[in-house]
Amino acid sequence: MTILKRELLSQKFTILIWGLAIGLMVAACIFIYPEMTSQMDQLNDMMSSMGNFSKAFGMDNLDFGTLTGYYAVECGNMLGIGGAFFAAIIGVSALMKEERDRTAEFLLTHPVSRTKVITEKLISVFASIIIMNAMVLVCSVVPLCIIKGKVEWGTVLLFHLAYLILQFEIAGICFGISAFISKFGIGIGIGIAAVFYFMNIISNLSSDAKVLKYITPFGYTDGSTIANTQTIEGKYVLPGMCLLTVGVIVAYVKYTKKDIRA
User: Fold this and answer.
1) What is the spatial distance between Cα 51 and Cα 204, in angstroms, rounded to a whole number?
2) 19: closest CA among 146, 145, 156, 160?
3) What is the dihedral of CA 170, 172, 178, 179, to 10 degrees?
4) C-alpha to C-alpha distance for 249 and 203, rounded to whole angstroms
5) CB 218 within 8 Å of CB 196
6) What's the pLDDT tens digit per position in 56-94?
């Protein structure tokens, strides 16, 4: 597992920075909640009067006045967007960086198969995502325990699980793309995550675009659905896991046959 350890060590500052950045922003939002409780009636009225804007971000079916509804909107958006970008960057850089940094010759001349290289790099991608999410969860749980408010822990954990699955999916897709490129990967990864995000907004705005929910991983992280049904919609998760699997298979097929530039 030498490659896995090397990958995790090389990503330690990236994981730390992203984990603390997202986690501290989530914590700050939670600490602000008690100060906003006196204005929640006005906020709910404002949200309900914003029409398509509320609908686009899934706020039309949430009670923003509750801690769970507030958490789903404010904290969910931060973890959703930030986590998606992190997963995309980690995933798309995994195989690409050996050519970009001119380290492929050093790595591949060792007595290790390309299949093993891919496997350990893939594990490192998922491990990095898990570590980052664990940091964010700790940053969320601590202030939730400190402030005064009814916390629906099952729903909160479902939110985090949904975003973890989202990040796995985006990372898997970007991992497959990583096998084809040698530079400009970060821009491609962020672009893919952003496209998925806006696809979800479009699907929320138009009933004719609901089919996009089956494509974008943000389709199963909708805060109002999770809060109201206490479930993650499997009909949207399944296509996502298929896309993740395809991305991983493509990475193995392409990278094992690729003429790698040293």
Assistant:
1) 12
2) 160
3) -160
4) 29
5) yes
6) 555 556 666 678 888 887 778 888 999 999 999 999 988
